[in-house]
Write a structure and sequence with these properties.
Number of strands: 4
Distance between the termini: 12 Å
Helix content: 25-40%
Order of helices and strands: EHEHHHEEH
InterPro entries: UstYa-like
Pfam families: UstYa (PF11807)
Strand content: 5-15%
Protein name: Tat pathway signal sequence
Family: Belongs to the ustYa family.
């Protein structure tokens, strides 16, 4: 998403070496999207026997398919869960079908608070950067460093 310099400063960001658009705004993403990206990558890594033919230019142990990236994703999700825990209490219930590993399932009637996902998505879509409709300022460290963003 597009993030203005004023928004960056309000959030307390250090602007040094941040990825910037040529029009002066900054490239951003919401933490929730980063976490969903990580969840998707882990699912694909776990089920690579199914996904490997469906991923264009898939190269094992490179880029986002490395163990380091999976470890990063696990840490990202752990951090999210610990920082924003759902504290509803789950109570085990015996499973009469006997198909679950422990013989019971975890259920909860506890209250949880959810955001209005549609409202968040609409807000973000208004700020979304469309592929090919923006350019980035050059990487000050050269092309051999960092991630190449396809836009």
């Amino acid at each position: 998403i597009r993030v203005s310099e004023a928004e960056m400063k309000r959030q307390g960001e250090n602007l040094t070496h941040r990825v910037q658009l040529t029009d002066g705004d900054y490239l951003g993403t919401m933490s929730v999207w980063h976490s969903l990206h990580c969840l998707e990558r882990l699912r694909k890594v776990i089920h690579m026997d199914y996904y490997h033919d469906k991923i264009p230019d898939y190269k094992p142990d490179t880029g986002i398919w490395t163990k380091d990236h999976s470890d990063h994703c696990i840490e990202r999700l752990r951090d999210d869960i610990m920082c924003h825990p759902n504290i509803a209490v789950y109570i085990p219930e015996w499973d009469e079908t006997h198909t679950l590993p422990d013989g019971f399932r975890m259920i909860s009637k506890g209250q949880t608070t959810c955001i209005n996902w549609d409202a968040l998505d609409q807000w973000a879509r208004k700020r979304a950067l469309k592929g090919g409709a923006y350019t980035l300022k050059p990487n000050p460290f050269g092309d051999e460093h960092g991630v190449h963003i396809h836009h």
